[in-house]
């Protein structure tokens, strides 16, 4: 059974990161988990400022203390954000991604909940957002929450309509296990989709050396059989399962289906069949995370999770 004992909510104190607050609280409430709120700052040490005049001594600027930053975080959260939950507020110095990854390992965090649009949200095409960098570095699942979502205060995390894209990689198989278990806990439905991208847009040509239409049909039937075999008979008793196999661009099909079915959650792996991680631009997972209108739970393979941050 899927359970989360320690939930980490990293925040940069931006308005965009507020969308993840109710989901962090709901997940902690549903599982009775400890909730840690983490804010990273560049440093707590005095910062030397060289003088622009020769012979004038260097001055030191003292940044806010750890205690002052933690108080600022509590004020930003408000008194009712995590009411009734066991909550710890931490301020730590360093690069946000490294701070988050280190905190996961040091305090045995098993779920990160964070917004998808922070202060670096519009720099994705150049260097990737903080959230996407966390997806690469985190040793545990990450629930990425897009802006504009809201759930009732004091609610628990119940996902009735779950979408799980599968490409038969180790991480997507683990994502499927989690998706099925989450749906079982909420008496929900899981739509499992596999998208065949090869020949997705092609039509048979007279000059082809084989029957393209026939081969497409073979791919379709073979993938349907593989997907059906992936779902155990026991899992089929846990919740309602829809099996979907289609042709197209994977991220477009996933986003469209998530919107059409008004999914509460998308659960997907962080690594594809060829071992291409999220560091490679164009990977399906970051494309879905960037554009999804529902929360996306990104899951690494068991081997990647036990190896720690990369």
Q: Which band does the percent of strand residues land in?
A: 15-25%
Low-pLDDT stretches: 118-127, 275-282
- Kindly report the CATH topology of the largest domain: Rossmann fold
CATH architecture of the largest domain: 3-Layer(aba) Sandwich
Could you name the key traits of this structure?
Rossmann fold; two-stranded antiparallel ribbon; 21% strand; single chain; alpha/beta; 10-stranded mixed sheet; 310 residues
Give me the secondary-structure topology.
Elements: E1 6-10, H1 21-31, E2 34-41, E3 47-49, E4 59-61, H2 66-77, E5 87-93, H3 96-106, E6 111-115, H4 124-127, H5 130-137, E7 142-145, E8 161-165, H6 170-186, E9 189-196, H7 212-230, E10 240-247, H8 250-260, E11 265-269, H9 284-291, E12 296-299, H10 302-306
Parallel strand pairs: 1-2, 1-6, 2-5, 6-7, 8-9, 8-11, 9-10, 11-12
Antiparallel strand pairs: 3-4, 7-12
Helix pairs in contact: 3-5, 8-9
Describe this structure in words.
The protein is built from 10 helices and 12 strands. The chain has 310 residues and is α/β, with parallel strands linked by helices. The chain folds into 2 domains: 1-44 and 62-152, Rossmann fold (3-Layer(aba) Sandwich), CATH 3.40.50.620; 158-310, Rossmann fold. The strands form 2 sheets. Strands 5-2-1-6-7-12-11-8-9-10 form a 10-stranded mixed β-sheet, sandwiched between helices. Strands 3-4 form a two-stranded antiparallel sheet. Helix 7 links the parallel strand 9 (189-196) and strand 10. The longest helix has 19 residues, at 212-230. The relative contact order is 0.15. The model is unreliable at 118-127 and 275-282 (pLDDT under 50).
């Amino acid at each position: 059974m899927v359970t989360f004992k320690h939930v980490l909510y990293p925040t940069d104190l931006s308005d965009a990161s507020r969308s993840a607050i109710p989901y962090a609280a709901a997940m902690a409430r549903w599982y009775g988990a400890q909730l840690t709120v983490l804010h990273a700052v560049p440093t707590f040490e005095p910062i030397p400022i060289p003088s622009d005049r020769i012979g004038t001594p260097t001055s030191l600027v003292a940044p806010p203390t750890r205690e002052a930053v933690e108080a600022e975080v509590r004020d930003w959260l408000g008194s009712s954000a995590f009411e009734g939950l066991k909550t710890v507020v931490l301020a730590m110095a360093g690069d946000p991604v490294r701070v988050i990854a280190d905190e996961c390992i040091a305090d045995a965090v098993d779920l990160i909940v964070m917004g998808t649009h922070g202060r670096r949200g519009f720099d994705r095409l150049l260097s990737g957002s903080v959230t996407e960098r966390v997806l690469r570095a985190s040793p545990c699942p990450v629930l990425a929450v897009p802006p504009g979502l809201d759930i009732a205060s004091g609610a628990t995390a119940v996902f009735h309509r779950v979408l799980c894209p599968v490409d038969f990689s180790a991480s997507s198989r683990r994502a499927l296990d989690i998706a099925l278990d989450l749906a079982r806990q909420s008496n929900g439905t899981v739509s499992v989709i596999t998208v065949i991208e090869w020949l997705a847009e092609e039509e048979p040509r007279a000059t082809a050396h084989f029957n393209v239409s026939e081969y497409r049909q073979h791919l379709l039937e073979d993938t349907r059989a593989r997907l059906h075999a992936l779902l155990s008979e026991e899992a089929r008793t846990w919740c309602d399962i829809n099996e979907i196999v289609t042709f197209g661009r994977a991220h477009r099909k996933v986003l469209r289906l998530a919107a059409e079915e008004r999914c509460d959650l998308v659960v997907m792996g962080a690594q594809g069949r060829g071992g291409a991680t999220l560091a490679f631009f164009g990977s399906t997972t970051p494309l879905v995370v960037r554009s999804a209108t529902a929360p996306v739970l990104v899951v690494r393979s068991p081997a990647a999770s036990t190896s720690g941050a990369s």
